[in-house]
Amino acid sequence: MHNISKNFMLRAIELSMISLKEDGGPFGCVIVKNNEIISEGFNEVTNKNDPTAHAEIVSIRNACNKLNTFNLKGTQMFTSCEPCPMCLSAIYWSHIDKIYYGNNRKDAAKIGFDDSYIYDELSLDPNKRKILLEQINEKEAIKAFEEWEVKTDKTVY
Amino acid sequence: MHNISKNFMLRAIELSMISLKEDGGPFGCVIVKNNEIISEGFNEVTNKNDPTAHAEIVSIRNACNKLNTFNLKGTQMFTSCEPCPMCLSAIYWSHIDKIYYGNNRKDAAKIGFDDSYIYDELSLDPNKRKILLEQINEKEAIKAFEEWEVKTDKTVY
Q1: Can A56 be counted among the known catalytic residues?
Q2: Which of A13, A96, A150, B87 could form a disulfide with B83 if both were Cys (CB 3.0 to 4.6 A apart)?
Q3: Cβ-count burial of A94 within 10 angstroms (0-12 exposed, 13-18 middle, 19+ buried)?
Q4: 3-state helix/strand/coil string of chain B
């Protein structure tokens, strides 16, 4: 398995270099199922004006589109950098089995990316965070949840 | 400001009800700039086979597309439920000023959504998480970061 993993990671790294050359952030990613690459992605935040278009999110969307599912159980992700909390959470939502990564969040911080800062913010009590959260209209908001709870034909994810 | 906020939130809640009726998760969101709604979104995970298509992410993408930017400084988000860590991180990446929310993560957990579980997982030491992370090929991966660091014409975000 180790040599195979290495090859998949080398492709993710290659994609990070391609992204760099196309003026995107230096991040690349592939998703693998049954020892084959089923999707690839690189950072398109600035090129597509989409702050959510990290390499991992792009790869997840591509994989789901290809397999026609919102559940990626049975797949592995190879990403050139440790996923930021947005991407790590997306990995949880999509049920990917395992993550292999190259650079880590400290390496990302050193070249000016906020991954480490956002990890720190998320672990803070909400009222101590830089971006304020305020709860309003909870009595009106809960109704959709109550209807969801009793809905019999819902698609759970 | 408070009455205005209430109206924006009521629209987000209305979107959560629309989503429910269209067999999506019961979540809606709007983004506001200068006291006007500039984008809307609701949960499209199951309908679009995209585990990243939460109401907040959809709204962020729509707002960025409309304003032709990857930076939403000067905007506020009104979301029918406290953002999950994926969405909260996306809010940090997009530099939204403030978040108003209706239901909270515990309400979401009660009706079967993993928001609270993922917050708990993210705060754990990586080797204690349910989804394993393994660092490989760090020597090869760092090259793209080194090139980024010395690149003079890069677009920073």
Answers
A1: yes
A2: B87
A3: buried
A4: CHHHHHHHHHHHHHHHHHHHHCCCCCCEEEEEECCEEEEEEECCCCCCCCCCCCHHHHHHHHHHHHHCCCCCCCEEEEEEECCCHHHHHHHHHHCCCEEEEEECHHHHHHCCCCHHHHHHHHHCCHHHCCCEEEECCHHHHHHHHHHHHHCCCCCCC
> Which residues of B are catalytic, by number?
56
CB-nearest partner of A89 from B92, B94, B122: B122
Quick check: A64 and B86 CB within 8 A? no
- Chain B neighbors of A147, CB-CB under 8 A: 17, 20, 26
Q: Which of A14, A22, A44, A56 is catalytic?
A: A56
Are B147 and A26 in contact (CB < 8 Å)? yes
Residue entry with tokens 């398109």: A44
Per-residue pLDDT of chain B (157 residues; tens, 9 = 90+): 566 777 999 999 999 999 999 989 999 999 999 999 999 999 999 999 999 999 999 999 999 999 999 999 999 999 999 999 999 999 999 999 999 999 999 999 999 998 999 999 999 998 899 999 999 999 999 999 999 999 999 999 8
Q: Do A145 and B90 touch (CB under 8 A)?
A: no
pTM for the structure as a whole: 0.96
